[in-house]
């Protein structure tokens, strides 16, 4: 009996496929075989990823055309000079970069690996907050520090770093 991947694994694999190849052109069956999922799981997967802003896709007759979405945020995702220096210093100390504006949907895999660890979140506004990563979803991140639990909306984040 053939084992199929979970939709979350298929989502990560599709993001990696798009990062390496730029786009996918083919049938639903071809995509299902590449991602090792059932063909009936492809449309819900694509709709989920489109709703989260990870991809755009077209269906022309039997062919799918899938591309990574290139949404331009209203606020530029640029770190201030002070933040850049701080991030470079943290990376030199052995911290790992979790999320940056150009990382797209791969961030959920990195955030899972940082669960329970101390993270530093840099905001687009220029401020930052440190704390232990307690949870996350598509729109926000929950951390805990000396002030208590803090809910941070992802659209306000520029970069996240943590020490593995």
From TrEMBL:
Which residue ranges does UniProt annotate as crossing the membrane? none
Top-rank taxon of the source lineage equals Bacteria
Q: Which InterPro entries match?
A: Hfq, LSM_dom_sf, Sm
**Cellular component terms per the entry's GO annotation:** cytosol
Specify the Sm domain's residue ranges: 106-164
Name its GO BP terms in alphabetical order.
regulation of DNA-templated transcription; regulation of RNA stability; regulation of translation, ncRNA-mediated
Q: Which Pfam families match?
A: Hfq
Entry-linked SUPFAM superfamilies: Sm-like ribonucleoproteins
One example of the protein's molecular function in GO is: RNA binding
**What PROSITE patterns does this protein map onto?**
SM (PS52002)
Q: Which Gene3D superfamilies match?
A: 2.30.30.100
Keywords from the named record:
RNA-binding, Stress response
Query: PANTHER family, from UniProt?
Result: RNA-BINDING PROTEIN HFQ
Q: What is this protein called?
A: RNA chaperone Hfq
Q: What is the lineage of its organism?
A: Bacteria, Pseudomonadati, Aquificota, Aquificia, Desulfurobacteriales
